[in-house]
Amino acid sequence: MSETTRVAVVGAGSWGTALAGVLAGNGHRTVLWALEPEVAAEVNDAHTNSPYLADVALPESLAATSDLAEALAGARVVVSVAPSQFVASVMADAAPHLSDDVLIVSASKGIELKTLRRMDQVMDEVLTPAQRARFSVLSGPSFAAEVARRAPTAVVAASADPDAARRVQSLFQNRTFRVYTNPDVVGVELGGALKNVIALGAGVAAGLGFGHNTRAALITRGLAEMTRLGVAMGARRETFSGLAGMGDLVLTCTGDLSRNRTVGVRLGQGESLDDILGEMRAVAEGVKTAEAVVALAERHGVEMPIATEVHAMLTLGRSPREALDNLMSRDPKPEEWS
């Protein structure tokens, strides 16, 4: 892929802005689409995005616009980074402006609540057969602020088309952003979505004052839940031992930059979900994903006790201590990963 590839990044939140910075820094002609005109203006004029990525200088070559058609004009690659609940509507608006040979890369981590669709399934409705064949996913342990500040980071690009995955790898990789390839789109999609639900639970445990033992238990048993559901939905088991599974799960459950963990911490400390979300400009994907995950688990006959208790805290009014007690008082059983 040419060093002057024309790329459109659709979504100017923290993650979209960080990825746009990587692409522009790699020499690609990158345009960032922002819903808010004031965000686009700040990126163009000050080379910053203070509402979503404070204290980070963006490449001067990065352009931004709030006009979706303008952002997509002539793009050979489109990176979709809208919040997962809005990907369908945003990409439906984008579809008329996409060429048939465009490479679509999804970097949104979530499951559509009303339909229980992964992002690749959402894209199936708006992309042409040729576009769907090259569709790729980018995921892995990557806080936006650290990526933007060029902290060494490793992620994974997944596609059913090996050439498409390698194109994404070539597009993004540099000395501080390493990209591996993987053919398992379903597993990479699910890893990126499910880990946010477990991170909410890890945050709740921290908010209740519990330490490393509790966190390790939640991460390990959370990974078991993620793997069970993933395999039931057609993913490869080994994907959940990799960057999009264990890697992203550990990061999101332990890092202070994790929005989902932060929501959980505040819930554990007794704050209401409405108050927490009312103060957040960025989206904590796990809040909506928790309900979708529980519904998917029921559909596929998969036991997911941690996700079930997180969902109960978010939507049924269950207290954090009651949720933890429910997990710890379950019937004894062998450690199984199948």
Radius of gyration: 19 Å
Count of discrete alpha- or pi-helical segments spanning 4 or more residues: 16
Given helix and strand content, the structural type is alpha/beta
Approximate helicity band = 40-55%
Share of β-strand residues:
5-15%
User: What is the residue-averaged pLDDT?
Assistant: 95
The coarse silhouette is globular
At the fold tier of CATH, the topology name of the largest domain is Rossmann fold
Which descriptors apply to this entry?
16 helices, 338 residues, N-(1-d-carboxylethyl)-l-norvaline Dehydrogenase, domain 2, 2 domains, Rossmann fold, eight-stranded mixed sheet, alpha/beta
Question: How is this structure best described in words?
Answer:
The protein is an alpha/beta fold. It has two domains: 6-183, NAD(P)-binding Rossmann-like Domain (Rossmann fold, 3-Layer(aba) Sandwich), CATH 3.40.50.720; 186-328, N-(1-d-carboxylethyl)-l-norvaline Dehydrogenase, domain 2, CATH 1.10.1040.10. The protein is built from 16 helices and eight strands. The chain has helices at residues 14-25, 37-46, 68-72, 87-94, 119-124, 129-134, 144-148, 162-172, 185-207, 212-232, 243-254, 259-268, 273-278, 286-300, 305-315, 320-328; strands at 6-10, 29-33, 63-65, 77-80, 103-106, 136-139, 153-159, 177-182. Strands 3-2-1-4-5-6-7-8 form an eight-stranded mixed β-sheet, with helices on both faces. α9 (185-207) runs parallel beside α11 (243-254) and α9 (185-207) packs across α14 (286-300). It is globular and about 60 Å long.
